[in-house]
Design brief:
By secondary structure, the protein is of the alpha+beta class. Helix content is about 60%, strand content about 10%.
């Protein structure tokens, strides 16, 4: 079995594996050491899909296309701009009354919004884990703590079905935090891009 990472053949130290999962696990450990993440995986020339079952006896070639941690973060920050715009637009369409009654369509929008907030929080944690912005912005860790606190309160309000309180927190408290990130988004992007450039030069 041959393994290629970004079109370069690599040696994994063993010729065969008991399963595809074992092979991918070994490859991912190798990528972690190089600050890379598997972006696309091809098995015998075909794209791997969820729940794909591969007969390891027929496993001849694994090709992996990677991205750096920083590259993934940069893409996510750009995605965040559109998501935040969409976040604020939801308050123009939701018509929750004083009894907190929501339609099925409104319920779906709320759930999607909560999923976005959890995704955004995970993005903040990844940025923090890579120590990209905390050296430049001394209050970045505090921002993450504030976001976590608001997210917890919002999720608790949703679980208790306190819709009026939920909407207030989402629009004003969380809205303020998202607006702060949005206003600094371009600077964050440039700082992370500069750090990525520096890492490439070092390598």
């Amino acid at each position: 079995m041959d393994v290629y990472v970004d079109n370069v053949k690599i040696e994994l130290g063993q010729k065969s594996f008991k399963s595809l999962g074992k092979a991918i696990s070994v490859i991912n450990k190798r990528l972690d050491k190089e600050d890379k993440i598997a972006h696309k995986i091809y098995i015998n020339g075909h794209t791997i899909k969820d729940n794909t079952i591969v007969d390891v006896k027929k496993l001849k070639v694994i090709e992996v296309i990677t991205k750096s941690q920083g590259g993934i973060i940069l893409e996510s920050i750009l995605d965040a701009r559109g998501y935040i715009d969409k976040y604020f637009s939801i308050f123009e369409t939701l018509g929750i009354d004083e009894q907190g009654i929501v339609t099925e369509e409104e319920e779906i929008k709320l759930i999607e919004t909560l999923i976005f907030l959890r995704w955004f929080y995970n993005l903040l944690l990844i940025i923090q884990e890579n120590h990209i912005l905390d050296f430049v912005y001394s209050d970045f860790d505090e921002y993450i703590d504030d976001f976590k606190e608001q997210l917890t309160s919002i999720e608790e309000a949703y679980d208790s079905r306190d819709m009026m309180e939920l909407m207030d927190m989402m629009e004003f408290d969380m809205g303020e935090l998202l607006s702060e990130f949005y206003e600094n988004l371009d600077e964050y992007y440039l700082d992370i891009a500069e750090e990525e450039k520096r890492k490439r030069l070092l390598n």
